[in-house]
Amino acid sequence: MNEIPVSLAPDATIPPAPRWRRVVLYLAFSATILAIRPTMVLAQEQPPSQPRAEQTSLLELFKAGGLIGYTIVGISCVAFAIALELSFSLRRSAFAPRGLAEQLHEQIAGGRYSDASQLSLQHRCLLSALVRAGLQEINLGYSAVEKAMEETAQYHGAKLYRRIELLSVTASLATMLGLLGTVVGLIRAFKRVAEAGGMVQASDLATGIYQALVTTVEGLLVAIPCLALFALLRNRLDQLVAETMLAAEYAFAGFKRSRLRRRAEAARSAAASGS
User: What does the CA dihedral 90, 91, 94, 95 come to, rounded to 10 degrees?
Assistant: First the structure.
């Protein structure tokens, strides 16, 4: 069997996504926020003879949330950028490019382990990392190869999961900030009641209650999509890691069969010599 050169030893990690992609995603989302200014009508449409219904822009609605509202909006921008970056990273071609498993299978089955290692180094993906980890243990048998690949898959899967978990953290933060804004708004409203000695009109309480409702809505509008994206991307990651592990096992299928065949032949030879 061919030994693997030291220079071709498998590296421990998959290289991270390019930084320029993250910068582009952040800039694109910021430009979208500045370009789109939808409005929300706060009263029903009235006849032409009556005054026009008051309209509040989305920016004014954010201002009504105060500092907490702006913080929630900032968190939503970060969550959108994270989700967009992960949608590019969690692609099947980024885990196991088409045709790579077949090429590795042919080379490993033919005993060309150095060629297989060189081929895996040319593709920066999870499948290449699994195969390189398995090639490092190939002289110890298929059990050692399988264990090395499983450990590598768990390591990289956990590494990617921590990035996806940021969406869950973002959803929790947005919900808590919305609740904080609700409490702050209610405190302001009841403070006015206390200062007026209990003799207040509904308009005196409107500002505090309005802020309380706005921050609650903003927090939920951020948290609900983040939780949905977290579930979708987590399931996508599990599926891709499982498929990549199967592709890596297929790459070593020829080596596994040859080992089993040799073991069976050795057992028959031992049985024949014993008889």
Answer: 80
Residues 32-55: b if buried by 16+ CB within 10 A, e if exposed = eeeeeeeeeeeeeeeeeeeeeeee
Residue 227 is assigned to a structural domain of this protein? yes
CB-based contacts of 39: which residues, under 8 Å, 6+ apart?
A: 55, 56, 57, 58
| Partners of 40 in the β-ladder | 56
Query: What is the spatial distance between Cα 181 and Cα 232, in angstroms, rounded to a whole number?
Result: 29
- Separation CA 16–CA 88 (nearest Å): 12
The pTM (predicted TM-score) of the whole model is 0.70
Q: Is residue 201 part of a domain?
A: no
The answer for residues whose C-beta is within 8 angstroms of residue 4's C-beta and 6 or more apart is 113, 114, 117, 135, 136, 138
Nearest alpha-carbon partner for 107 in 258, 252, 269: 252
Most confident of 28-32, 167-171, 185-189, 263-267: 167-171
Rounded to an integer, what distance in angstroms lies between the CA atom of residue 228 and that of residue 178?
18
Q: How many domains does the chain have?
A: 1
Mean pLDDT score of the chain, rounded to an integer? 76
Is residue 37 within 8 A of residue 61, CB to CB? The reply is no
Q: Is residue 51 part of a domain?
A: no
- Whether 105 maps to a domain, the answer reads yes
Q: Which single residue is written with the structure tokens 């609900």?
A: 224
State the residue range of the domain holding 141.
23-34+62-167+222-259
44: which 2 tokens? 């029903």
C-alpha to C-alpha distance for 229 and 126, rounded to whole angstroms: 22
